[in-house]
Amino acid sequence: MQSLLDPAILFFALGIFAGLVRSNLEMPAAISKFLSIYLLMALGLKGGFALAASGFTPSVATSLGLAVLLAIVVPLVGYALLRRVLSGFNAAAVAATYGSVSAVTFVTATQYLESQHIAYGGHMAAAMALMESPAIILAVLLANALRQKQQAVAVATSAAPVVAMTSGGAATLGGHGPGNVSGKSGPHLSVGKILHESFTDGTQLLLLGAMLIGLLTGDAGKAAMQPFSGDLFKGMLCLFLLDMGLSTARNLPAVRQQSPWLLAYAVLGPITHATLALGLAWLVAVPAGDAVLLMVLAASASYIAVPAVVRYAIPEADPSLYVSLSLGLTFPLNIVLGIPLYTQVVQSLWAV
Description:
The chain is mainly α. Helix content is 76%, strand content 2%. A hairpin with a 5-residue loop joins strand 1 (162-165) and strand 2.
């Protein structure tokens, strides 16, 4: 219960309450964007400073390897399950959303670990960056495969002769050529283009660039940036989570319209993903703090990066599915209950 009294979580709850009672409390878009930039920059710097102090060790390589493995396994398993209740395009979009990560959930988790005096590796910010793209790439590849299959079926169907009646009553044979096949179809994106868009995206570029700056400047940079990336961090996070609470409240009506199967996936899927991360971290003896963050990353769902790409790359999918589930249900559950729960589980197993 004490973990729920963290100011950041309470400000998030305040934002949800304000949204539910239809308060006129609102965060200007420019300030919301500034807070996002600040948090990513501060997180990258802190990660770079920590990595400069620890160096690139076998433990670092192991954690990054597990992050990439989870980023591949989670969306593939999610797609296989979701395909039973959704169309192929919707299943790919939702699987990408839950296979990618939430930067805000990760930032909140790092702040929670610091409040509990649990150390974690600065390289975990790089793990978060690495986990964002694989799910998007897999989703686009699955969507392209589905389109090719649909086009092949459409061409085969249109090529089959059909019987038509002339005005005189005589039967004639005809067919529809490939040029007459129509339907909603998205662009066929190459893996290279997806990778370019992912790693030159402003969010990724700022995070990785700030981490590199922190790594290069080390202790001197840390001392110089302490008032910015250290002292202000908690307050800025509280402001951002207040805004996220307002956004969550706006998405709750759409959540109530989803099927029980999808609601169950939005709750049980992240727990399953976190359990998978826990098992892998336990097998290879990842440090406790890194294990918690791996669980958080595996359990989180993207509500910014993936929707921005998927809306363009997979227009056949329904945005109300993946946006409402990730932001309206999974995000608040992770912030309020998931992070403290994952931390307690790791503390028990690792005997921290």
